[in-house]
Amino acid sequence: TEAYKGPGDRAAHSYGNRRTKRTEIMYREAGVVYTYTMHTHTLINVVSGGADEPEAVLIRALEPHEGLALMEKRRSGKKPRDWTNGPGKLT
Q: Looking at the record, which segments are called Disordered (predicted)?
């Protein structure tokens, strides 16, 4: 994961309290999913600040425990450890 601390974090989409159509969701309550596209990949973030506290956590990878047969079918030819080991592989 990567955490983005909002307006003071130069790497955050909300740096400097930027409010755009894309970042508006970051200003909502914690727990909301914020997705965006980068280099043809859809990335997943979870808003972690409260309302009007635009903070988020990027989910870079995960370890699946359910749905493995379906994942294997959809990711044919790849090793299981490579199914979800990058931010662009989760969608």
A: 70-91
Buried b or exposed e, range 16-48, using 16+ CB within 10 angstroms: eeeeeeebebbbbeeeeebeeeeeeeebbbebb
List all residues 6 or more positions away from 89 whose beta carbon is below 8 Å from its beta carbon: 41, 61, 82, 83
pLDDT in tens, the chain (91 residues): 899 999 999 999 999 999 999 999 999 999 999 998 888 888 999 999 999 999 999 998 999 999 999 999 998 888 998 999 887 787 7
